[in-house]
Design brief:
Number of strands of chain C: 2
Number of strands of chain A: 4
Strand order of the largest sheet of chain A: 1-4
Family (chain B): Belongs to the ABC transporter superfamily.
Chains: A mainly alpha, B alpha/beta, C mainly alpha
Helix content of chain C: over 70%
Oligomer: heterotrimer
Strand order of the largest sheet of chain C: 1-2
Largest sheet of chain A: 2 strands, antiparallel
Order of helices and strands of chain C: HHHHHHHHHHHHHEEHH
InterPro entries (chain B): AAA+_ATPase (IPR003593), ABC_transporter-like_ATP-bd (IPR003439), ABC_transporter-like_CS (IPR017871), BCAA_Transport_ATP-bd_LivF (IPR052156), P-loop_NTPase (IPR027417)
Largest interface: A-C, 48 and 47 residues
Shape of chain C: globular
Structural class of chain C: mainly alpha
Keywords (chain B): Amino-acid transport, ATP-binding, Nucleotide-binding, Transport
Number of helices of chain A: 11
GO molecular function (chain B): ATP binding; ATP hydrolysis activity; branched-chain amino acid transmembrane transporter activity
GO biological process, one term (chain B): L-amino acid transport
CATH topology of chain C: ABC transporter involved in vitamin B12 uptake, BtuC
Number of domains of chain A: 1
Helix content of chain A: over 70%
Distance between the termini of chain C: 31 Å
């Protein structure tokens, strides 16, 4: 019983992390149809910022966390300006390939100017402490993660439903030109989407760092792959889909760890991606994909 | 109010409008008529800045032809586009709020929304429903209301009667007539020439990207030959 | 068989490309050092990969990210068949199904490798071609990850990241040049074939093409499987020359490298694939030399690890921003010359 409870909590906290990651991708995709592969490198910027703050500024974890989130938010907005603005209205493939390019450039910049080797940050270890909750031993990190994700989702929902800019972002996912025709500036909507995406990347980077303890140029690669999978399963461009996909992926991963015999552990990714592929066969555009009409008029 | 000189509109390599000039005086309702493919919607798109064009587009004497889409709307142009383009995933009320996205005066926005719900009780009843669930006529009303939420100087109406039942069409034209009588400046694009001319002060007849004729409704509607052209049979 | 006007021009264009490839081969054979010869050989392998990628991406306009995996399948399948039993007993002592108890000649092995890759790509393709733009791309990414983790996991068959050695080195530069020339003709032939023409038309207007009775999925599947076979060919050529393979070169780095080549040259044309491959292969070699921190006019440059990656990424970003259709755009080589 205890074992089951533990695994359920594991699945939920993995799911929470994936949902956080997937939302960062989905919010940009929903507004501009861009599959932002460079999201992982934004997360890595968060990791390196923590290194820099811990080494040069302070050991106060709160300041380190705030610094990392601020850095990822700024990086994300800067990337929109520099790299993604020229391909803003281009077809999705052009955007995707641009994002690949940006991702490769950033990864190699880390390699060139920082280090190819992992750098450790120890100031966040305290986040990951064992806690007893209703007789089940879990990690405090899992609680932080789940709570943060819930807060983020609630905040995002409120923002998207209550504020004009939030409404405009939802409208933009359907008909961006019409949003411009109401006078709301496209630049602001895009910048905002990337800002939110960057904030989410920052939060994710904190949790990844707390778990892993070090950062290297490939810091964001695996997380962003997972985020992709979550988005695809949920339906690309759908924010509820991203959340659903994230939790589903968490559940599948934990189930694989539990159910697969020990010596099949190396095939976990293959199974996870295989299940993803099956979901796509069943619903080629994901479970909660927003309806899109095909036709000559955009 | 709105003065257009020598407007050419391009869709990629194709020129859809070949140098037209037209003007809309303050408080006037001007009809832009013509058959399918005449270049009416291209003209509207060019005025809004979403189509590539050359020539001058001046609003109250200020040239907007180099301005961005957003700046044009901010300087006083609003559009109810062809196909209405309601944000179908958002509530009726949210559609109106986005329409007022450029306005800083929150209280007045709320009051304007309340006024629209009074004018169109059906929109009020469905304020929380997604815009996509409205009927065609209701969507058209919403599209016009959304455009007017920005308190524009001029309202561009692109084919407001398209695809609507005759009874609803009459309602839409009634509404436009009322806006005009309240002093709104309107550029009305229509295929439905007879109805449009009834509520217009002046009309232009567009065909194959050129202005074929212009004049008061009496001038345009007078000759049989002209009416044949207007209905697209000439 | 009568050829259409564009097919005749296509044949002519393919001949011009073939002449260029042969010229590069001849110059390399006579003037290059051993090290340079290996570079040119790997450029030719990448050329075949990029051509394989072009067949699918250029005609269907869907982005594929799994191509390096298919190259890997071809390479491993051929390697397992062709490697002598004595070698395999050392390299793969625990291989199941008697995989280490037989050896075939290189031609039979290559044919088996083509058949195996063809079957796998058909099985995957059936699903891929049903998806729309982004979905297909992500699904292909999933294929890449799945195949790679199988390579890594079944060390008893593939040796994972360790070297699978002992493959007979039966290929020379001459063989790969001939192979590349043949592939150029196949790829250009497909582009101008009724299938290729219809597929390109459907990419521009899927709804319209479907309305005209074009079975888009079937056409995409044909292009996908053809692409898989060409990629397998590249993998076989790679294994037959080096004699050693491992899982690492069939993963993300190679995916990006070859994708950058195709994008830079222009994915819509065969000429673009050829141009992009050689431009980036040779460009990168210069950058790699800078990376090692060489001495230039008496000044010691610092070591710049990562510079080649930055350049590669920049090439993609700048191409997308400034000329998304690549250098060649919609023009094939013969059109460049005939318009002068």
């Amino acid at each position: 019983m205890e074992y089951v409870a533990q695994q359920v909590i594991n699945a939920l906290s993995f799911g929470a992390e994936y949902a956080l990651l997937a939302l960062g991708l989905a919010i940009v995709f929903s507004v501009m149809g861009l599959v932002n592969f460079a999201h992982g490198e934004v997360i890595a910027v968060g990791g390196y910022t923590m290194v820099a703050f811990a080494a040069l500024v302070t050991a106060n974890p709160l300041i380190i966390i705030v610094g990392a989130v601020a850095a990822t938010a700024m990086t994300s907005v800067a990337l929109e300006r520099v790299a993604f603005r020229p391909v803003r209205y281009a077809d999705p493939t052009t955007g995707l390939l641009t994002a690949f390019g940006v991702s490769i450039v950033l990864q190699n910049l880390f390699l060139l100017f920082i280090s190819p080797r992992p750098i450790a940050v120890t100031s966040l270890y305290f986040l990951d402490a064992p806690v007893m909750l209703f007789g089940v031993q879990i990690s405090s990190l899992q609680i932080f993660e789940s709570v943060t994700t819930v807060v983020v989702i609630v905040g995002l929902v409120l923002f998207l439903q209550k504020t004009t800019l939030g409404l405009a972002m939802r409208a933009a996912s359907l008909d961006f030109e019409m949003v411009r025709l109401t006078g709301i500036r496209a630049n602001r909507v895009f910048a905002l989407a990337f800002l939110i995406s960057g904030l989410l990347a920052g939060l994710a980077s904190v949790f990844i760092m707390a778990r892993r303890g070090s950062v290297d140029p490939h810091f964001g690669f695996n997380p962003v792959l997972k985020a992709f999978v979550a988005c695809v399963v949920g339906g690309f461009g759908s924010l509820p889909g991203a959340v659903l996909g994230g939790f589903l992926l968490g559940a599948v991963e934990v189930a694989m760890l539990v159910l697969l015999p020990q010596d099949y552990g190396g095939l976990k990714d293959a199974f996870v991606f295989g299940i993803i592929a099956l979901v796509l066969v069943w619903r080629p555009d994901g479970i909660l994909s927003p309806a899109r009409e095909k036709g000559d008029k955009q | 109010m709105l003065d257009i000189r020598d407007l050419h509109v391009f869709h990629g390599p194709i020129e859809a409008v070949h140098g037209i000039s037209l003007s809309v005086g303050a408080g006037q309702c001007v009809a832009l008529l013509g058959p399918n493919g005449a270049g009416k919607t291209s003209t509207i798109s060019a005025i809004c800045g979403v189509a590539q064009s050359s020539g001058t587009i001046a609003l109250e004497g200020a040239d907007l032809s180099k301005a961005s889409v957003e700046d044009r709307v901010r300087s006083g142009i609003a559009v109810s586009p062809e196909g209405r383009r309601i944000f179908s995933n958002l509530s009726v009320e949210a559609n109106l709020r986005i329409g007022a996205g450029v306005r800083p005066d929150r209280e007045n926005v709320a009051r304007d929304i309340a006024n629209w719900f009074e004018t169109f009780p059906i929109l009020g009843e469905r304020r929380t429903q997604p815009g996509g669930t409205l009927s065609g006529g209701e969507q058209q009303m919403l599209a016009i209301a959304r455009a007017l939420m920005s308190r524009p100087k001029i309202l561009l109406l692109d084919e407001p009667s398209l695809g609507l039942a005759p009874r609803i069409v009459a309602q839409v034209f009634q509404m436009i007539d009322r806006l005009r009588s309240e002093g709104m400046t309107i550029l009305l694009v229509e295929q439905n020439a007879r109805q449009a001319l009834k509520i217009s002060d002046y009309g232009y007849l567009l065909n194959n990207g050129r202005i074929q004729a212009e004049g008061t409704p009496a001038d345009l509607g007078g000759s049989k030959d002209m009416m044949a052209k207007l209905t697209g049979l000439g | 068989m009568t050829l259409t006007q564009s097919q005749k021009r296509g044949f002519f264009g393919a001949c011009m490309l073939a002449a260029i490839l042969i010229a590069i081969g001849v110059v390399t054979t006579f003037f290059a050092s051993n090290y340079q010869l290996r570079l040119v050989y790997s450029a030719f392998v990448n050329l075949i990969v990029v051509l394989g990628l072009q067949v699918f991406m250029g005609n269907s306009r869907l982005t594929n990210l799994s191509h390096s995996a298919f190259m890997g399948i071809g390479a491993y399948a051929a390697a397992i068949c062709v490697t002598p039993v004595a070698m395999k007993q050392i390299a793969l002592p625990d291989a199941p199904w008697g995989l280490n108890a037989f050896a075939l000649d290189p031609v039979t092995s290559a044919i088996i490798a083509l058949i195996v890759t063809g079957i796998v790509s058909l099985a995957v393709g059936v699903f891929i071609v049903r998806m729309t733009g982004t979905g297909a791309t992500i699904a292909s990414l999933a294929v890449l990850v799945i195949v790679h983790s199988i390579f890594l996991y079944r060390t008893d068959i593939f040796k994972g990241n360790q070297a699978f050695f002992g493959i007979p080195q039966v290929f020379s530069l001459t063989s790969i040049v001939i192979l590349a020339v043949v592939v150029v003709f196949i790829v250009r032939g497909f582009r101008e074939s009724p299938w290729g023409v219809m597929l390109r038309a459907s990419a521009d207007d899927e709804t319209g093409a479907a309305a005209m009775g074009v079975n888009v999925r079937r056409l995409r599947l044909i292009a996908w499987v053809l692409s898989g076979l060409i990629l397998a060919t590249a993998g076989i050529a790679y294994a037959y020359f080096l004699g050693t393979i491992s899982a690492r070169p069939f993963y993300f780095n190679h995916v990006f490298l070859t994708l950058a080549m195709l994008i830079f040259g222009g994915m819509r044309t065969v000429t673009g694939a050829v141009l992009g491959t050689f431009a980036i292969s040779f460009g990168l070699e210069i950058v790699r030399w800078l990376e090692t921190g060489p001495k230039v006019i008496g000044i010691n440059l610092p070591e710049l690890l990562g510079l080649s990656g930055i350049m590669l990424g920049l090439v993609i970003v700048l191409t997308m921003a400034l000329r998304p259709v690549g250098v060649m755009g919609d023009r094939e080589i013969e059109e460049v010359f005939s318009k002068r």
